[in-house]
Amino acid sequence: MGLADSMPMAIPEDAGSIAANLNARPSAIRRFVAETAPRYLVLSNLMARSLRDLDAQLDRVREHFSGPVTVAEDLPCHVVDSAE
After folding, report:
1. How far apart are alpha carbons 42 and 51 in whole angstroms?
2. Which helix (H) or strand (E) holds 54?
3. What domain range is 20 assigned to?
4. Res 84 pLDDT > 50
5. pTM
6. Confidence band of 1 (pLDDT split at 50, 70, 90)
7. Residue 64 lies in a domain
8. Domain annotation covers residue 77
9. Which of 32, 60, 72, 81 could serve as a FRET partner for 3 with CA atoms 20 to 30 Å apart?
10. For the segment 10-64, what is each residue's pLDDT rounded down to a tens digit?
11. C-alpha distances in angstroms, 15 versus 20, 22, 34, 64?
């Protein structure tokens, strides 16, 4: 189990292949969290298509991941406690 993992921000499931090479469809995020079992997920690589409906994108991620989810910003620091 990973303490924290980073994943490119979700894009709509029906996004084209070019967009899917840059960002992750919700189905890819589901597979990622199922395979890695992180305790903390950081969504990164924000693009306009990801931000158009950020709350809906986060809701889709949270349907399949019950741990903390953070949307990355430039220069943040995240403390991850390995004892949890």
Report:
1. 15
2. helix 54-62
3. 5-71
4. yes
5. 0.69
6. very low
7. yes
8. no
9. 60
10. 777 788 888 888 788 878 888 888 888 888 888 887 777 777 778 887 888 888 8
11. 7, 11, 22, 19
CB atoms within 10 A of CB 10: 25
Specify burial of residue 23 (Cβ count, 10 A radius: 0-12, 13-18, 19+): buried
Per the domain annotation, does 11 fall within a domain?
A: yes
Q: Would you tell me how many other CB atoms lie within 10 Å of the CB of residue 30?
A: 17
37 φ/ψ sector (left φ>0, alpha ψ -120 to 50, else beta): left
| The pLDDT of residue 7 | 66
